[in-house]
């Protein structure tokens, strides 16, 4: 099993402020949720995305709040690791404001896709993975030649981003197809799929708007981002 720990992108001098803020928010909210004890379940049902409620025109705000909740420490840590690896590169390329809008819209697209393929479900969906899937979708388009660093058992290796993310998407798609008709809950595969597809489409737009190359991000200008020659 390959365990990713980082990538080889360079963005010296650039502070991915909102990537850090999102990580901090997710951690703080989970700490609060954990502190509630048994009442934490009610917190999840209040702010998690429940498909049947959205279909009935209720609690639309949960399409956004759900992406800041997590079901367990491992769920949180896994998502924050992927945010650490991928989000800073996207923010460095497109700028703070555009990144925030993209991240939230990616989470929204993921949530809507989950609802479409899980109609009538009363199980709350939570987690940042839908929005992060959008980030990963944009990454495979914007930085396909970069390498993802990590460990394969005890060996440290690097894997091309397009292979790592391509295989990841294949896994999600395969699991999503097998989950069709399953009402028992579990991993929101279709949120991952929908978020990733949204991110890929946005990534192509970002390459046009910001002229981002496929490898090596140098120091980005503040604000909207910088066109890299």
Q: Any idea what the radius of gyration is?
A: 17 Å
What is the domain tally? 1
The name of the CATH topology is Rhomboid-like fold
Give me the strand/helix succession. EHHHHHHHEEHH
Distance between the termini: 37 Å
Report the sheet with the most strands, covering strand number, pairing sense and barrel closure.
3 strands, antiparallel
| Content-based structural category | mainly alpha
Residues in helices, as a percent range = 55-70%
Number of separate strands: 3
CATH architecture: Up-down Bundle
Overall 3D shape = globular
Question: What do these coordinates show?
Answer:
- The chain has one domain (2-210): Up-down Bundle (Rhomboid-like fold), CATH 1.20.1540.10.
- It starts with a strand and ends in a 19-residue tail after the last helix.
- The protein has helices at residues 17-35, 40-47, 51-55, 62-65, 73-94, 96-117, 129-142, 161-179, 189-210; strands spanning 2-7, 147-152, 155-160.
- Helix 5 packs parallel to helix 7 (129-142), helix 6 (96-117) crosses helix 7 (129-142) and helix 7 (129-142) packs across helix 8.
- A hairpin with a 2-residue loop joins strand 2 and strand 3.
- The protein is globular and about 45 Å long.
- Strands 1-2-3 form a 3-stranded antiparallel β-sheet.
- Mean pLDDT is 89; it is low at 214-229.
- The longest helix has 22 residues, at 73-94.
- With 229 residues, it is mainly alpha-helical.
């Amino acid at each position: 099993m390959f365990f990713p720990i980082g990538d080889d992108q360079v963005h010296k001098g650039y502070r991915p402020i909102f990537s850090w803020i999102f990580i901090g928010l997710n951690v703080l909210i989970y700490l609060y949720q954990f502190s509630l004890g048994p009442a934490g379940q009610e917190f999840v049902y209040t702010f998690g995305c429940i498909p049947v409620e959205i279909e009935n025109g209720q609690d639309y705000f949960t399409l956004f709040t759900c992406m800041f909740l997590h079901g367990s420490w491992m769920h949180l840590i896994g998502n924050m690791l992927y945010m650490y690896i991928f989000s800073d590169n996207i923010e460095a390329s497109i700028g703070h404001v555009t990144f925030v809008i993209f991240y939230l819209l990616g989470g929204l697209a993921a949530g809507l896709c989950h609802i479409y393929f899980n109609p009538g479900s009363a199980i709350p969906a939570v987690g940042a993975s839908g929005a992060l899937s959008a980030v990963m979708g944009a990454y495979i388009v914007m930085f396909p030649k970069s390498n993802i660093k990590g460990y394969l058992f005890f060996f440290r290796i690097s894997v091309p981003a397009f292979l790592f993310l391509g295989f990841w998407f294949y896994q999600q798609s395969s699991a999503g197809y097998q989950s069709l008709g399953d009402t028992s809950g579990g991993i929101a595969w279709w949120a991952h799929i929908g978020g990733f597809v949204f991110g890929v489409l946005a990534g192509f737009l970002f390459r046009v708007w910001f002229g981002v190359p496929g490898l090596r991000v140098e120091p980005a200008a503040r604000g909207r981002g910088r066109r890299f020659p």
